Amino acid sequence: MHRIKPLIPLVICMALVYVLNKKWGDVPPIGPFTNPFMGFWQNADQKEGEKSRELLLEGLQGIVVINFDERHIPHITAENDNDLYFAQGYITAKDRLWQMDFQTRFAAGRLSEVVGEKAIELDKYQRRMGMAYGAEKMVEEVKKDTEMTTVMQAYADGVNAYIQSLKPKDYPLEFKLLNYKPEKWEMINSALLLKMMSATLASSSDELYLENIRAQYGDSLITELFDGYPKWEDPIIPIDTKWNFTPLAIDSDRQSGPNRQSKAYQDLNEDFSSISNLLLTAKKEEHLGSNNWAVSGSKSKTGAPLLANDPHLNMTLPSIWYQIQLSTPDIDAAGVSIPGAPCIIVGMNRDVAWGVTNVGSDVLDWYEITFGDAEKNTYLSSEGKMSIEKRIEEIKIRGKGTIQDTVYYTHLGPIPYLSGQKPKKLGAAANVPEGYALKWVAHQPSNDVRTFYLLNRAKDHSDYRNALSHFTAPAQNFVFADKHGDIAMTSNGYLPLKQKNQGKFFLSAEKEADDWHGRIPFEHNPTVKNPPRGFVSSANQFPVGPSYPYYLDWQFAAYDRGHRINQVLAGKDVVDADDMRLLQLDTRSVLADNILDTLISNVEEMDLDKNQSEAFAHLIKWDKSYRANSIAATIFDTWYNQVEKALWNPWFKQDSIAMRRPGRDKTLQLLLGQQASKWFVQGNERKTISKQKLIKEAFQSAVDELVETHGPMSKKWEWASVRNTKIEHLAGIPAFSSPLIYTDGSQKTVNAIGKSAGPSWRMVVELGETPRLFCIIPGGSSGNPGSPHYDDQLESWSHGHLEEFNLSSKDETITYTLTLHSK
Amino acid sequence: MILIAVSAVLFQLFLPWWTIVPVAFLVLYLLPMQKAIPAFICAFLSIFLLYIFVSALLSIPNEHLLANRIATLFQLPKTSYSWVMLMLIAALPHAILAGFAGLAAYYVRKLKSKDKPFTE
Q1: Chain A partners within 8 Å of B51 (Cβ)
Q2: Residue-level pLDDT at A3
């Protein structure tokens, strides 16, 4: 017995080492993770910042100085382009390596390698949508441009120089938590991240829903409810702008679309909640959008133009943007970059400023495919039988080996799902029809980095135009201003040349007329320079009025934000930078301006119970602003949603068929119109009711819903509490996410804050001899949850403050300096 | 105890996290304790105190920003001392491991000294 006894503690030791060294489900290996010499404790960045130091790195040609200011924003000064982008890559990786890795894996469909089986369907989806295919085409295109190859390669070299300097104890926290290693950075990773912007901003597709609606109700309903230029609109390019070009003609006598009435609706009686909601990068939100505007010197207090931009994207921690200043003898630009891609995407330099909002036009179409043989080796096209190209995707699954997935490619693009292949529970794939080929602008060869490279160096309007001519996707409304006094706006990108409504429904691979007819020439893209009103603006609404000779899309985002911006800018003779900030924070609801009185006039107080009357009394006094503490805003918002539901659900919500509601413009037309309409019905049997009854009952159910969810009227009804904005960690880890953010705004107002999407960067630029940049991000510079700069700008952001960007790198604001020397 | 702590630091700087097992084992084998429980406690405390000391060294200049987040991750109760609790909890598995290594050393040593008369 005594010979066995010493073995017991030894066995316990070995068992403990085994248990503590292994990753159990989502639990990291406890041993290495909690070990203070290599685990999470090593990621505790010092609050007072690092010490200034010198580093020797291979791949540099000269000396690079990187100054960090109090917000940990890097200001890079290099002697040449190679060193500049090398340093940008190095320093971005230093702050954001895990984010870069994770987002790249997400885009490429390689998450399963890290998180295991639960990401398989998501990975397949990304691959089947051709994300990597698009990125490969981008790299091919970039390689034809030696200057851009240098930029992209120097950036990758910088990232790799940082990765090589790491020991396991230095790995960013999430690598330790998810228990994997950073891998070498390739140029294609940057391309994947840029393509991801297209997936986020230019992949909306309603075809499936509209086909279902057309199959159910016929063409006349489509014409009535899903067509036509909006009644309420305030287009981006002022409506009186003349088009000084001769439009290209499209041969248009051929009927478009598949021959037979479209396939019956797909069975969509399924649960769409899924991992893609958890790993929220790709989840499409309805109200992703942005604002930008520029005011000419004639309206500005300083006499030089002002420019403002706030892109509304999914707000995450680490922040989706990385603030940076890039200087060489040829360039001095500041603004935000995408972690993982070179150059500044939105920002300014000594001479100009620029910003972007999403255009959102139809750049994604579905083509019905008929296979030419049973083995699916061929398909029928307008030019006869063509071969299918099969691309084998290998998906490595953590701890489970590799699976192969075959994606079928046509000349139009990939067929994401063959009949019966679509997974039941993947939210991202909800609008993807089975058996259709995808033609998408993100698959076009592109060299978008050149646009930003040139904008970073632009000096005037003609440089701006030249830079824009290189841009493909996602199409953006590029606002511009320069110190000479020019302001401009261009809805820019590869906008396919189409017949009216082409691509609103499914198209056919067998019809020549259904393919894109090339693109709208860059020179014909909607643009305006120095309009008489003294300002330009955009907020994702229709880019143009009905006089524009090309078809862009049949619908755009509602006009509310754009209209409000124009209203405020037109109403002021002289503005300054702070007026720009206040306009970004504007919470006035144009929807409420349009509809609230009508809604109220349809409610009779005697029909209301106690809670309802109290809510009603509150609402009548509302200033129509979505302030954080406004209870009336909550009541209005809930009421309006209930009205839409009551109005459209009897028509467009059926368990087995995926459909969508008409736009807000149609809803308004009906609500402000006659008491009786064929659309005012109730229940599945669609019993006719009056408008008054519909509105009143919607009010009652809105209040009932609020009482049920939040109890009787109290502070819990305040708009900011009900909206419940939180900024989530990129991998959805609650401990690294923000608590509830108490701040003004709604997705229907200029200050477009939603539950998880909102102003991901607020910027105001004051041009002039000494330009100034005021800005903020809802997070911080560092991607390390253990850094004081992980979310140090969040509070300021939530109060609506902007911080002045330290453009001259004054000594007193520099906390430390890294000097990079060539090895 | 000091010897265990010092050699643990040296090992941990270059070798995997579980090398505290041979460290604690060797030290207590070469410098044996008289009884089992003190052997366990000696190894346990060496690592426990060392790890708390090192994590405090890292966490204090960070003002426990990271510690508080990790405490939330580990679902520890949210108080102004969550970071202290985290230090204790994080050091615990390592201390237990070292403790068992110390215990093993004690028994092996005992076995050897008992065996000696028979083998020689």
Answers
A1: 35-36
A2: 66
Is B66 an 8 Å CB contact of chain A?
A: yes
**Which residues on chain B are in Cβ contact (under 8 Å) with A13?**
21, 97, 100-101, 104
Buried b (16+ CB within 10 A) or exposed e, A161-170: bbbeebeebe
DSSP 3-state of A530 = coil
Q: Is A660 exposed, middle or buried (0-12, 13-18, 19+ CB in 10 A)?
A: middle
> Is this complex scored with an ipTM above 0.95?
no
Please, is A31 exposed, middle or buried when counting C-beta atoms within 10 Å of its C-beta (0-12, 13-18, 19+)?
buried
Which class in CATH covers the domain with range A590-723? mainly alpha
Sequence-distant (6+) residues with CB within 8 A of A516 are A365, A439, A496, A497, A498
Tell me the pairing of strands A346-348 and A436-440.
Answer: unpaired
Q: What are phi and psi of A207, to 5 degrees?
A: -55, -45
Identify the contact set of chain A against chain B, taking CB-CB distances under 8 A: 2-3, 5-6, 8-10, 12-13, 16-17, 20-21, 30-32, 34-48, 173, 733-736, 785-788, 790
Distance from CA of A419 to the nearest CA of B (A): 43
Helices B82-119 and B20-30 sit at what angle, rounded to 10 degrees? 50
Interface of B with A in 7-46 (CB under 8 A): 9, 12-13, 16-18, 21
Name the residue among A730, A162, A144, A205 with its Cα closest to residue A470. A144
List the single range of A55-59, A108-112, A196-200, A517-521 with lowest mean pLDDT: A196-200
Q: Please name the helix (run of DSSP H) or strand (run of DSSP E) that holds residue A492, with its range, or none.
A: strand A487-492
**Per the CB < 8 Å rule, is B18 touching A20?**
yes
Q: Over 70: is that where the pLDDT of B65 sits?
A: yes
CB burial string A131-142: b at 16+ within 10 A, e below:
bbbbbbbbbebb
- CB-based contact (8 Å) between B85 and chain A? no
Residue A259 has pLDDT above 60, yes or no: no
pLDDT in tens, A703-749: 999 999 999 999 999 999 999 999 999 999 999 999 999 999 999 99
Which residues on chain A are in Cβ contact (under 8 Å) with B72? 734-735
Query: What angle, rounded to 10 degrees, do the helices at A590-601 and A610-620 form?
Result: 130
Output the six-digit token pair for A728. Answer: 């989530």
Closest residue of chain B to A34, computed from CA coordinates: B90
B113 touches chain A (CB under 8 A): no
Q: Between chains, do A41 and B108 touch, taking CB under 8 Å as contact?
A: no
Sequence spans of domains, chain A: 590-723
Between residues A65 and A425, the one the model is more confident about:
A65
Residues 6+ apart with CB under 8 A from A541: A233, A234, A235, A236, A556, A557, A558, A559, A561, A562, A563
Least confident of A2-11, A122-131, A446-455, A803-812: A2-11
Query: A30, B93: Cβ pair inside 8 Å?
Result: yes
Q: Which of A255-264, A328-337, A650-659 has the lowest mean pLDDT?
A: A255-264
**Using CA of residue B43, residue B46, residue B52, residue B55, what is the dihedral sign?**
negative
Alpha-carbon gap: B49 to the closest alpha carbon of chain A (Å):
12
pLDDT tens digit string along A49-61?
889 999 999 999 9
Q: Assign A506 to helix, strand or coil.
A: coil
> Rounded distance, CA A289 to CA A745, Å?
14
Digit-coded pLDDT (tens) for A174-230: 999 999 999 999 999 999 999 998 888 888 889 999 999 999 999 999 999 999 899
Q: Across-strand partners of A822? A: A57
Tell me if B93 and A31 make a contact (CB, 8 A cut-off): yes
Burial label, A361 (beta-carbon count in 10 A; 0-12, 13-18, 19+)? buried
Subunit contact A788:B63, Cβ cutoff 8 A:
yes
B21 contacts in A (CB within 8 Å)?
Answer: 13, 17
Q: How far is B45 from chain A (nearest CA, A)?
A: 15
